[in-house]
Amino acid sequence: MSALGFALPEDVLAARDGILAFVDHEVLPRHARHAAVLDDPRGRYREDGRYSDAALALIREVRMAAAAAGYFQMCTPTSLGGGGLGHLAYFVAWEAMFRHCGPRHWLMLYALSHWAFGPSRMLEKITDEARSRIMAGLMDGSRSMCFGLSEPNAGSDAAMITTRATADGDGWRLSGRKIWTTNAPVADYCVVFAVTDAERARAKQGGISAFLVPTDATGFRIERVIRMFGHVGGDEAEITLDDVAVAPWQLVGELHEGFRAALYGVSLGRVYNAARGVGYGRWALERALDYAAQREAFGQAIAHYQGVSFPLAEAATELHAAHLMGLNAALLLDQGEAAVKELSMAKAYAVQVGFRAVDRAMQVHGAMGFTNELGLTEAWHTLRVVNVADGTNEILNRTIAQRLFKGDTAL
Ligand SMILES: Cc1cc2nc3c(=O)[nH]c(=O)nc-3n(C[C@H](O)[C@H](O)[C@H](O)COP(=O)(O)OP(=O)(O)OC[C@H]3O[C@@H](n4cnc5c(N)ncnc54)[C@H](O)[C@@H]3O)c2cc1C
């Protein structure tokens, strides 16, 4: 059943259906077999907050199986050896997986290369030497990376970063701190953004460059794993760079133009998170509809009470709009548009309405809504956090307003 008045391209539908079948075959059975590792935080994390060896082995297995089956790298550009599917396929596949799996079957996060952890479009401009050194491991899923932009004193205004790349021979030395870097605790490489020309950076005229840094490089240190939202472990870390030597082959794209790569990376994150908002929202709505139809109070199913059914109708309306906005923004990106306004709208709206849908689903479930087994609280946590990651709602509104006042009022 589709609510769309237009057809999605055949290759996009085939990619979506294929990856869902992969998830059914490779991800769900692992969750059933390894619940003690995957469901129980005591099995999932080590004392220091990193994933346990058993959890990491399962993550790697899923990545490598998905790579062998051709799904993991299907949205990686062909120039890097990937399948070359575009932003629309990326949005559609992620949305379908989030909706299909919900938050409990989280190994599905590793079935498709995440823009910041795997072989991503962001790497299109790496050097030939970097390609030969690192791409094979990223493409076959045995290795992963992370995206080091934010710093303790530079978040929304990321151009304020102070990590420095000081010229040294034909290379550079990096010093500074990064924070909130997702996947850093277990990544093999980090794309580190650093100031290479302080004057240009101050004037917001470039001056920031991106470097591929192995996480075992001398001077690269994971300071701590950051526990978010009461979790006992986590994906985010704080990093220190102390005089880390980098050579010209490690430069990503052009010198001083790294901020462009950062903005492009973040825009991929917005596609991903728009899909996550819609997917989790639809997953929660479906749980709520089932529950409301069978749970009885005062002599009939609670679905008969408008106090229960109207919030779900509103959630469905909002999710439908968010779904269309996400599809449209992804299509514009595939047409070569920057889609700054449309993608900002899609991400901010999808995350907010996805969160609201999950919240309403919790309410419909009564006390049941707060149990760990159902996973609604996990989706609620995740979407709450995504109101900040990859551009806060306020920063996205700021971007939309800037576009509007520049005359971009097309809607
Ligand atoms: C789960 C998670 C994962 C992340 N992963 C990564 C990662 O992998 N790599 C990475 O580099 N970063 C990562 N981040 C960091 C993320 O990009 C930043 O949190 C985000 O850019 C906001 O920055 P900040 O947290 O420093 O908030 P601040 O920039 O300090 O903002 C604080 C508040 O002020 C508001 N604000 C700021 N400026 C304005 C303005 N002009 N108008 C109105 N309101 C404003 C913000 O909206 C926010 O509400 C992650 C964050 C989270 C939560």
Structural key phrases:
single chain; 411 residues; alpha+beta; Butyryl-Coa Dehydrogenase, subunit A, domain 1; Butyryl-CoA Dehydrogenase, subunit A, domain 2; Butyryl-CoA Dehydrogenase, subunit A, domain 3; 3 domains; four-stranded mixed beta sheet; four-stranded antiparallel beta sheet; 12 helices; 10 strands; 14% strand; globular; binds flavin-adenine dinucleotide
On the 0-100 scale, what is the average pLDDT?
96
CATH topology of the largest domain: Butyryl-CoA Dehydrogenase, subunit A, domain 3
Spatial shape: globular
Strand order, sheet with most strands: 1-4-5-8
Give the number of DSSP strands.
10
> What would CATH call the homologous superfamily of the largest domain?
Butyryl-CoA Dehydrogenase, subunit A, domain 3
Bound molecules: flavin-adenine dinucleotide
Low-confidence stretches: none
Structural notes for this entry:
- By secondary structure, the chain is α+β, with helices and mostly antiparallel strands.
- It has 3 domains: 10-126, Orthogonal Bundle (Butyryl-Coa Dehydrogenase, subunit A, domain 1), CATH 1.10.540; 145-252, Butyryl-CoA Dehydrogenase, subunit A, domain 2 (Beta Barrel), CATH 2.40.110.10; 260-405, Butyryl-CoA Dehydrogenase, subunit A, domain 3 (Up-down Bundle).
- It has helices at 10-33, 35-38, 41-44, 53-68, 87-101, 128-139, 198-202, 258-294, 306-334, 340-364, 376-386, 393-405, and strands spanning 145-148, 164-168, 171-182, 189-195, 208-214, 220-226, 236-246, 251-252, 296-297, 300-301.
- The strands form 3 sheets. It has a 4-stranded mixed beta sheet with strand order 1-4-5-8. Strands 2-3-7-6 form a 4-stranded antiparallel beta sheet, with no helix packed on it.
- A hairpin with a 2-residue loop joins strand 9 (296-297) and strand 10.
- Helix 1 (10-33) packs antiparallel against helix 4, helix 9 (306-334) packs antiparallel against helix 10 and helix 10 runs antiparallel to helix 12 (393-405).
- The longest helix is centred in the last third of the chain and has 37 residues, at 258-294.
- It is globular, with a radius of gyration of 21 Å.
- The structure holds flavin-adenine dinucleotide.
- Flavin-adenine dinucleotide binds at residues 116, 146-150, 155-156, 180-182, 236, 385, 388-389, 392, 394-395, 398.
- Flavin-adenine dinucleotide is lined by residues 116, 146-150, 155-156, 180-182, 236, 385, 388-389, 392, 394-395, 398.
